[in-house]
Amino acid sequence: xxxxxxxxxxxxxxxxxxxxxxxxxxxxxxxxxxxxxxxxxxxxxxxxxxxxxxxxxxxxxxxxxxxxxxxxxxxxxxxxxxxxxxxxxxxxxxxxxxxxxxxxxxxxxxxxxxxxxxxxxxxxxxxxxxxxxxxxxxxxxxxxxxxxxxxxxxxxxxxxxxxxxxxxxxxxxxxxxxxxxxxxxxxxxxxxxxxxxxxxxxxxxxxxxxxxxxxxxxxxxxxxxxxxxxxxxxxxxxxxxxxxxxxxxxxxxxxxxxxxxxxxxxxxxxxxxxxxxxxxxxxxxxxxxxxxxxxxxxxxxxxx
Length: 304
Hints:
Blueprint: H1 3-23, E1 26-28, H2 29-34, E2 36-38, E3 41-43, E4 51-52, E5 62-65, E6 74-75, E7 81-84, H3 93-104, E8 108-115, E9 118-131, E10 136-141, H4 144-149, H5 155-158, H6 165-191, E11 207-211, E12 227-231, H7 232-239, E13 243-245, E14 251-253, H8 255-258, H9 264-270, H10 290-303
Parallel strand pairs: 5-8
Antiparallel strand pairs: 1-9, 2-3, 4-5, 6-7, 7-10, 8-9, 9-10, 11-12, 13-14
């Protein structure tokens, strides 16, 4: 593999680090389509095909799973990603490209479409298996910090198919968790038009998808009706039972907080919410579930 290939891949990883530091784990498609400039050449990270090779490279740089797309990508029982071939021709240039990446254990980037026009970015990932019968590649994620420790791309040391399989299996299983969390967040924020349901704040980077019933509870399903779009301060207040939401969608501030004297944040950001109604999603089928609110409000009352 050429020095340019290695340098471009490392530049792509660094660029993704910078973008996720600014935008968060989930990136807008337009950003990926524009890509970044490398020595006067534009490196695009996403195009029309799921297996994407920018012009400046000989082999694919990214693979993408589309929401409701034509391919049924999934996770195996041992937590690794099962990524479908492009089409049914095992010798299609895209499939051959991924096979070459596997042979040399060259890293690439995985994008998962978690909401319309928005993608969770995972890197570095490796093609770690190939099953022509099921037209499926096995993909495993690794730690970018480990990649830096082993002298960037040390191909000879990672070509062994059993190389650090336990670490990669664990990291890839965590990707599945991140996918569920990111998908839940994006769907909740979209339902609430990307604004806090209490204070109307519309800065995406300051918004969370809060569970009404915590995900640690058997009833805490990652569905929109069990979610609330909350800014970070109101999310913390809700989780810590400083603020409760009644089953009629009214906001209740805990009595001791109402009686407390503090600065303008407490007064205007918390206390003035008392007895106001939350902002509901556009579509009724996305409204917070009444039974979930009743259960959570009961916890709030007992805490108060």
